[in-house]
Specification:
Elements (H helix, E strand, L loop, with lengths): L4 E5 L5 E6 L12 E13 L10 H15 L2 E5 L6 E4 L4 E6 L2 E6 L3 E4 L6 H20 L4 E11 L2 E8 L1
Parallel strand pairs: 2-4, 4-8
Antiparallel strand pairs: 1-3, 2-3, 3-9, 5-6, 6-7, 9-10
Helix pairs in contact: 1-2
Length: 164
């Protein structure tokens, strides 16, 4: 078996709180509620001549920035086939799902390019955003695998894995 290296980033401050509701396959949905999500990341890659996959100090702020951006917002699935939203001129956004209609300040809503507000989709959005930011910041990195877990409660996580 060939040797492999990775860094694992699991810090208490890598978290975000948000409101959401999950839409189930049968079309029913949860009530609007919130979670305190925790984010854990693992990055696999080649070991550099300096003995590093990538410097922890350079990765943690990127994850923190993503978490901070999501924090204390209502997250909406912009790619759901039934849910709709419309930003009004008065600074509010209307959200409609079947017979449920909501109105909230636009500044408190983030519409993500996902089809449902699941922990799995949050992990994928954070993972893809992290990978893009790492490539922008560090150029062509040797990331062979990236894994992001987003837990909504202890022992219950959605996980996204990117493999090169």
């Amino acid at each position: 078996m060939p040797e492999a290296w990775s860094i694992l980033i699991e810090k208490e401050y890598l978290k975000f709180s948000c409101a959401h509701f999950l839409i189930f396959p049968d079309g029913s949905k949860e009530r609007l509620h919130g979670h305190n999500y925790q984010v854990v990341s693992e990055i696999d890659g080649r070991l550099s001549e300096h003995g590093l996959v990538i410097d922890f100090k350079m990765v943690k702020p990127i994850i923190r920035k993503l978490c901070d951006w999501l924090d204390e917002h209502w997250l909406i699935p912009g790619l759901h086939p039934v849910l709709t939203y419309r930003q009004r001129d008065d600074g509010h956004t209307e959200i409609h799902y079947k017979d449920c209609h909501y109105l909230a300040p636009t500044s408190e809503i983030i519409v993500l390019p996902i089809n449902n507000t699941s922990a799995e989709n949050f992990a994928a959005w954070i993972g893809r955003s992290l990978l893009a930011e790492l490539r922008t910041t560090f150029g062509p990195l040797s990331v062979s695998r990236l894994r992001v877990a987003v837990s909504e409660t202890s022992g219950q996580s959605g996980v996204y894995t990117y493999s090169d």
